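Narrative of activities, Objective 1.

The group set out to show that a structural description can be obtained from nothing but a protein's sequence at a throughput compatible with the screening campaign. Below is one input-output pair from the validation batch, recorded exactly as produced.
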Amino acid sequence: MTPGCASKRSGKWRVAGARGSALSLNPVKTKPQVGRSVKRGSLRGGWPEASGLHIQIAVCIPCLNEEATVSQVVRGFGRALPGAGIYVFDNASTDQTAQVARAAGATVISSPERGKGNVVRDIFRKIDADWLILVDGDGTYDPSTAPRLLEAAIRQGADMVVGRRRASSAESHRAYRPMHRRGNQMVCGLIRSAFGVSLQDVFSGYRVLRRSFAKTIPLGSRGFEIETELTLQAISKDFKILEVETPYGARPPGSFSKLSTSRDGLLVVRTFMAICRLYRPMFFFGACAAGLGGLSLLAGAAPIWDYLQYRWVYRVPLAILATGLAILSTLSLMIGLILETQLRYHNELFALLRKRFEPNSSGEDDQRTLHRGAPPTKNYTPHSG
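Output recorded for this entry:
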């Protein structure tokens, strides 16, 4: 393989790196991997040298009709991470997105099934690297902060680092829609109530993901609600999430948003409810049981008053309604208890699956361990600044 080339085997993309050079690419006789090997000292931002240690980084950019911005995004990440593999997943664009991205130096991979969620699943299936950087191709995120996000992930052992968006006062009104800001706050509040985790930005499209996370979580979202599902899946499966502030700007002229406030908002709420039902069944069905129990008491208050006053129930329909609601409340509580027990066994099986993608303790050398997504070794300490 010549320098700068990517190969495709078994449906996965691979660019392998040689020791001693962040940009020297050589074939390897192992399971296909994606993402050029980046020597730690080659990353911008003052990372110190760690002789012979490399990590594989793949920058993955889902795009739908982003010809106005994709070149800027590709070149920006090329400068920020000079040894990383950059992959543009073209979601059946009708403009020149693929051609522009290819001319800018990216590897373009077709992902024809429309919807950002479908593209992200395609990325996780086809790309195999130590770290994945997932970023929108609309030019609203700052590529120069990528090394800082990666450094935070490695130093603090995070499985997912979310770029918490912060727009300047001059661009805030153009970068954010008012309903999107309120929706983000609402969903963060729901997550805090249901899962006990405090987050500030659920909808960010700028994320750094560990290989063990990308290869094990199940995803079902098809559209822009995928960011919410990524966060909720990480929380429910006990992955470590970290938020790092990153600049956020408005779309440049000629670039148009594909978001729909009402439609995407309903999808986000539906995704939240589905994740709660599947991964917090006691919370979900317990809330249903409490609501049905409260309605049962309201409906049954009048019949109970009749019986206490006259030793006779005159409002029979309300008594029947109250009884039915009480039965449904009890059933909901029992369902929650049963599913909570099943969830425990599911989590145990998932923990076993997750170990396949975690570093082992069998004495592998540092090079191989890093390629399995492990935290940095003892002789590697990034600069605090």
